[in-house]
Amino acid sequence: MSEGLRARKKRETRLRISDIATGLFMARGFDNVTVADVARAADVSVNTVFNYFATKEDLLLDRAPEVEELLARVVREREPGETPVAAVRRDFLEALETGHYRYGFHEAGDDFLRMVETAPSLVARVREMGETRERRLAEAIAEEAGADPDDLTPALVAAQINAVLRTMVSYAVRRMIAGERTDDILPDLREQAERAFGLLESGIGGRYIRR
Questions:
Q1: Which residues of the chain have pLDDT under 50?
Q2: Helices 153-177 & 84-98, crossing angle to 10 degrees?
Q3: Residue 134's CB: how many other CB atoms inside 10 A?
Q4: Domain holding 136: CATH number?
Q5: Looking at beta carbons, which pairs linking 6-15 to residues 24 or more positions away fall under 8 Å?
Q6: Which residues bind DNA (predicted)?
Q7: Which of 176, 23, 25 is nearest to 115 (CA)?
Q8: Each residue's pLDDT tens digit, 165-198
Q9: Considering the domain boundaries, does residue 210 fall inside one?
Q10: Is the distance from CB of 183 to CB of 108 less than 8 angstroms?
Q11: In a domain, 198, yes or no
Q12: Percentage of residues of the chain with pLDDT beyond 90
């Protein structure tokens, strides 16, 4: 079914407000821009901004729902015979190869990352997104495996996968913020990721292979 006119206009308005907010944040710094500043630049009311975004942080991190659902989706859509670890490894390396933003590391992202690092509320929101992503991954693994509610194994697997990703991305972000070029970081990041996921796969083994 095609998108209705009302839904399309709402989506376009939301995107326009987010784009304007991001431009202001990048130019002035996150903590130096108010929601009223964003509303004024977008020619809407403050109430309209909050109709589309629950918090100021969401104006910048508008892809939070997609990020939070990412690992659960990757696991649910994995190939027959593929473990959760292998599926996430494949998707992570594919994101590196294509320069996709979904794991938080991409070319020209250094200015964005610096801004996030200097705003405590954004750091906290990113941490919250990571925790939600891990919880939803655990739920997806448990659901597919038919795990008992008291079985902690899906949560432990999800925590280890998320820890590898968090460590890999933090490694890359530190180097980007220090001024290194993406092309210089990528080879090392791929090598580190292969080693980390290899260790994880050997530890978890064939548990939760997709049938």
A1: 1
A2: 20
A3: 22
A4: 1.10.357
A5: 10/52, 13/44, 13/52, 14/52, 14/53, 14/62
A6: 34-53
A7: 25
A8: 999 988 988 898 888 888 899 999 999 999 999 9
A9: no
A10: no
A11: yes
A12: 63
